[in-house]
Amino acid sequence: MSKNIKSITNPKLQLKVLTPEDVRKIHDATLQIIEKVGVRFPSQRALEVWAENGAEIDRDRMIVRARPELIEQALDSCPPFYTLAARNPQQDLPLDGNHVYAGTDGCGVEVIDIHTGVKRTSELQDVRDIARIADATEEVAFHWVPVSAQDKPHQTRGLHEIRAIWGNSTKHVQTESVYSEHEARAAIEMASLIAGGKDQLRKRPVLSLMQCTASPLGHDGGSLDAALLAAEAGIPTGFMTMAACLTTGPATMAGNLAVGNAEVIAATAMLQLAHPGAPVFYAAAQTASDLRNGAYTGGGPEDFLFGAATNVLADYYNIPLSMGSFATGAKEPNWQAGLENSLSTFMASLVMSDMLLGLGFLHGSRIWSFAEMMLDAEIFSIVHKMMQGIPVNAETLALEAIAAVGPGGNFLSQKHTRAHMRDLFLPQFMDRRPYTEWESKKDDARDWALTKARKLLAEHQPDPLDAALDAELERIIAAEEKALV
Amino acid sequence: MTDELFKQMAQSIIDGDADAATQLAEQAIQGGLDPLEAITKGFVVGVNFVGQQFAEGEAFLPELVMAGEAMKAAVKTLEPEMMKRGAEREVLGKVVLATVEGDIHEIGKSLVGTMLTAAGFEVFDLGVDASPHKIIAKAIEVNADIIAMSALLTTTMVKQREVIDDLEKEGLRSRFKVMVGGAPITRDWVSRISADGYSEDAIGAVNIAKQLVAAG
Ligand code: B1M
To answer: Same domain, yes or no, for A307 and A192?
Structure first.
């Protein structure tokens, strides 16, 4: 099976979504919010960091107000480039601004069973299965913990999950389900083992951490403590805002960007103040809540625009971005899923967002679908192809072949055609058959996608994790479980 | 004259104008109007109208929330006068509402609160990250009919069970109805923890709450 990773690079398409003037205004608004309104940091350690650096702190409400200079200075120490390491170094992911990588989505609560098609609660075996299929899928560059292992104790669930992924794939693991200090400590220990020691881990972070902010203008205490530990260990850490117009953010998109930006930037600055130079990334999945029921939509035109605008902000701060694209609100792989996931991924790719999250979800990040995972991979491939643009040169202008065919005739028998036919995109899941053939079978993309996922699961053998190493990981988890009872 | 005042009261709710609602409530007290009448013939008419519009898809969520806020402001202004007259507003039931411990997802819980309030329940919203102890203590304090818990995380939904277990241990289980909700909550979970009700959205939550108080 190929170890290749498909990423978008050297883009030929461009999009202007915010002018430099717009960005400046959003930045100024952000600084004003952090200075005047403040951001909530419900963690003693985080508050200490702010206090040591002279920020104004309301201890009762745990709200921090910081001067613009403090924020801007702190952000100066963010490293602009670094690499997310994989168990297999061939699959390392340089976050250098010239690559767009896609990952699986994460933290689902239910799964459409790959064998029975029945929707049920997610388990550890699903994490293993998804990791294995992702390992074999070149569009997947890295993993998020796709679903929650609800058959494992909730205090150590996050640890079982990352072990399951490392055991089934050599690609980089980013977890968004480790959000307490004790779990982070154990996760870092596990990552050190994989990397070959604490110093090695700093050089080759095989794990990265994503924490949610708590919009509007707040954070979760456990997340902050986990992030501080990770930053100390040199594990790349990002804060993700999910500010949603109408509910957790203003109804206007610019205001929503400013609120989310204030959350992310304030937390990023705090990490830099605590551990200057720690690898950090910007993460976002803003949206607009539904006007009628407040639902998290995971799609719609506002979503697509946020997908494009956020990388402009992350670029302004010179840090990589992890952007929520895909993650449709649709209940099954259908028109809405195709539309939302294509447009969100296209918009976020046009601006070269470094990481895209993620493949495989339905119902607004709640239900994992193996068919959707494969369909999303194809969407990424289509965008990948589009981003290559239209190369124009003597060879591609094909004047010789055109002269040889002349008016009339066709290009099927031309050498030039043979040389270039594989440049054309070959879909796996688009229905281009005769109507009658479809009529006799009535199958479609969803069926083929599921068949493919089943085949990969049945056939793909990932490079195993060394048995002794895996036993060590298991030991760490067991010790953690023992300590908790 | 009073009819005109009632109309203005309803309108203040429809406009979601808490200041106007407060002012009209004060006016009612000064004019010697029965505060209960001000509520039922004035403000509640506005709430019902907005609720109806919302159900028909004509009004949007912010309008509903603002109507709720205006209603709260009006009731708060009228309350001292009601106390004086020994009158008590009729509510469908008292609900202690919270997002469980360790969980900070707020929106769904607050929407459920808004809908319950709009439907005529008295809601005590404990916010997010509320411990089982805090939830149960409040339920006892206000003599609640229903304990309503939201949990959005698979790691925190166990707290819903913890509250039910604690109620059981303290011999309080039969005193309160317990309803639950949130993204990972399934029918299966609800029966496993022996909760009394569950719904997938806020409108459904109102129906469940009504059924629970009717079942007494
Ligand atoms: C009592 O009776 C009832 C009856 C009905 C009830 C009810 C009670 N409560 C709710 N209902 C029902 O009625 C409501 C109205 O219709 C509905 O409420 P909902 O809350 O479902 O609906 C709201 C109107 C809109 N929906 C929402 O607001 C939730 C949307 C999603 C995307 C979501 C959001 C927005 C957030 N999140 Co979080 N978040 C997700 C959510 C995925 C999803 N689509 O559900 C979920 C729940 N989150 C998740 C995660 C992992 C997390 N989140 C976290 C944080 C956040 C934000 C703070 C960023 C934000 C909340 C902002 C806020 N101020 O509330 C973190 C947890 C922090 C913590 N300690 O709580 C963090 C752990 C991420 C991290 N690594 O930091 C996932 C849970 C996975 C799991 N396996 O448990 C998740 C499914 C998304 C995902 N796949 O990652 C119904 O459920």
So the answer is: yes
Q: What is the pTM of this model?
A: 0.94
Answer yes or no: are the C-beta atoms of A257 and A313 closer than 8 Å.
Answer: yes
Cis peptide before A94 (omega within 30 of 0): no
Does the beta carbon of B158 lie under 8 angstroms from any beta carbon of chain A? yes
d(CA A371, CA B66): 42
Q: Which of B56, B61, B157 to mutate: most A Cβ within 10 Å? A: B61
Q: How far is CA A420 from the centre of its chain?
A: 33
Per-residue pLDDT tens digits for A297-324 = 889 999 999 999 999 999 999 999 999 9
The residue of chain A nearest to residue B204, with distances taken between CA atoms, is A293
Judge contact between A219 and A267, C-beta under 8 A. yes
* Owner of token pair 């002279």: A54
The two structure tokens encoding residue B6: 């009632």
B112-171 pLDDT tens trace: 999 999 888 999 999 999 999 999 999 999 999 999 999 999 999 999 999 999 999 999
In sequence order, what are the beta bridge partners of A323? A284, A356
Structure tokens at B128: 């997010």
Q: How far apart are CA B64 and CA B73, in angstroms?
A: 14
Domain that holds residue B128: 94-215
Q: Let me know whether B78 and B103 are in one domain.
A: no
- Please, are residues A289 and A303 in contact by the beta-carbon 8 Å criterion? no
Provide, as residue numbers in chain B, all residues whose Cβ is less than 8 Å from the Cβ of A157. Answer: 154-155
- Closest by Cβ to A148, choosing from B111, B154, B158: B154
Domain count, chain A: 2
Radius of gyration of chain A (CA): 23
Identify whether the C-beta of residue A110 lies closer than 8 Å to the C-beta of residue A367. yes
A402-415 pLDDT, tens digit per residue, is 999 999 999 999 99
Reading the block at residue A140, the tokens are 């997947």
Handedness of CA A414, A420, A422, A427 (dihedral sign): negative
Measure CA of the first residue to CA of the last residue in chain A; give whole Å: 43
Q: Please check whether residue A329 is in contact with residue A366, taking contact to mean a CB–CB distance below 8 angstroms.
A: no
The CA R_g of chain B, rounded to the nearest whole Å, is: 18
DSSP state of A441: H
Q: Which of B122, B120, B103 is nearest to B180 (CA)?
A: B103
Q: Which of left, alpha, beta for A384 (phi over 0: left; psi -120 to 50: alpha)?
A: alpha
In a shared domain, residues B108 and B130 = yes
Last residue of a domain, one of A423, A441, A474: A423
Domain range for A413 is 394-423
3-state secondary structure of A117: coil
- Which residues 6+ apart lie within 8 Å of A416 measured at CB? A398, A400, A401
